[in-house]
Amino acid sequence: MTTTTDLVSYEDALASYDPVMGLEVHVELGTNTKMFCGCSTALGAEPNTQTCPICLGMPGALPVVNATGVESAIRIGLALNCEIAEWCRFARKNYFYPDMPKNFQTSQYDEPIAFDGYLDVQLEDGETFRVEIERAHMEEDTGKSTHVGGATGRIHGASHSLLDYNRAGIPLIEIVTKPIEGAGERAPEVARAYVRELRELIRALGVSEARMDKGQMRCDVNLSLRPHGREKFGTRSETKNVNSLRSVERAARFEIQRHAAVLSSGGTIVQETRHFHEDTGSTTSGRVKEEAEDYRYFPEPDLVPVAPSREWVEEIRASLPEMPLARRNRLREEWGVSGTDMQAILNAGTLDLIVETIDAGADAASARKWWMGELARSANESGVAPEQLPITPAQVARVSELVAKGELNDKLARQVIEGVLAGEGAPDEVVEKRGLKVVSDEGALGAAVDEAIAGNPGVADKIRGGKVAAAGALVGAVMKATRGQADAARVKELILEKLGVTEG
Amino acid sequence: MPGITREEVAHLARLARLELKPEELDHFAGQLDDIIGAVARVSEVADQDVPPTSHPLPLTNVMRADEVRPSLTPEQALSGAPAQEQQRFKVPQILGEEQ
Prior knowledge:
The complex is a heterodimer.
Chain A: H1 10-16, E1 17-28, E2 65-66, H2 67-79, E3 83-84, E4 91-94, E5 104-107, E6 114-122, E7 128-140, E8 144-148, E9 160-164, E10 171-177, H3 187-205, E11 217-227, E12 237-242, H4 245-264, E13 272-277, E14 282-288, E15 298-299, H5 310-318, H6 324-335, H7 339-348, H8 351-359, H9 364-372, H10 374-382, H11 393-404, H12 410-421, H13 427-434, H14 442-455, H15 457-464, H16 471-481, H17 488-498
Parallel strand pairs in A: 12-13
Antiparallel strand pairs in A: 1-10, 1-11, 3-6, 4-5, 4-15, 6-7, 7-10, 8-9, 11-12, 13-14
Chain B: H1 6-15, H2 22-40, H3 42-45, E1 63-64, H4 74-78, E2 84-85, E3 88-92
Antiparallel strand pairs in B: 2-3
């Protein structure tokens, strides 16, 4: 980037202006097949091995909608508290661009399958913010372009482009919010919390893994500013393909600062698409919209209308899982933790793991302690998600059980976890191989020694008086108490140490 | 029914990526006007109580199960492509209108 963008400080921007946001999120469904044909949706296939006459737009090929795709759309709609259309159609969105071989994208226009809903999201401090949902509609993904001959794969300066249509036709659900007003300085945080809550929801519904890093969930951030007290919205910019939670927040924040700089210097905002840059956290101008886009939408004649029966809709509603926010609130109460703790658990991505560990028999406190302590740290250090660590919730639960039984203390348990992570086997194997019995632990041994001293005051006095040989009696007592599982030499050292005597 | 203007034809031509000469704009404006006029006669018989028809067949909810069917081989898929490279469809330079 050769030009720098003028920005005002975030505080100054908010002092003069009120941000209004609109968020558009595309979710790639995890169906086996594409939206309108039976081609596989598996990732990572060789180019153009998952296409057919339908998704290639061959003349005469007739699409048929994927029933699971429709059901997933309804599930998402219901979970977002939307109404479900009694009758709706697909529409052709016409445009000339080689990422769709048909020269149109099959989408929905003025008859979305789901509309008028909301999603409650929770901010860092526990405050709840309601984001109104305008609509959720069904459409299809586009092919993947590779631009050749230009600098670093950019389209500008490219001599030609190469198209792989494996992705063309994969089901997408586009979820559009109503204008988000009243978030004020917390607008970027609301944007992030919304996308995160939506991701949790999509995963809970089981309709997609919603991995932003894999492009399964992508967000466009539309933002405008208006002077405080004015009702009319300002001109918006549309920042496309913001593909991580952190980026959603940064993009909104950057655009607030950029808009404010333009407006406060007497300029006007150009309605345009903008590109977000992960490295700098900034946006740059993309395509200026000189006029309203003319996609010449019209009802798709090759697909008949979708008219979900009310029975089917109610059946789907009855099968919805507990919603993530409600679940978190329930667990928070059950576990007796604060909202901040719960937020930290969510951020660390350990919520499900903790639940599974508890289900495997651990108590809530220790499950939480391990996953938020040792294991979160270990995942962080090795740069993997906690669920990718080579330890299962059942194994963590076993460690926790050994601690509860008194066979391990914290320090030993940490070593057991360390051993499991290092691939030394299941917790019991690690205990065995490393000889991690609680009695070999200093603290536990110390306690046993203390007991032996207290129980034999006469012997202790003799030792204090210099009869080091008398220590043997105390060693015997400790060995008896630990059922022979202590290191006798170490026990003797401890006894002498505690009684303030040095050997010979 | 207002006539189709030269500007409207130019706009349509741009959307369809057709390069039209000035005289063609006039020519097509007249022709399109005739066509639109003919189609518009439908509205003379279609009253408010007749909903617009998008599908002549009284069918809804035609769906298929989410089961994978065989795809084309890449050779078959690419057999009609004017140009290909790296098992991909090769298309001419995209004129930077969208990034």
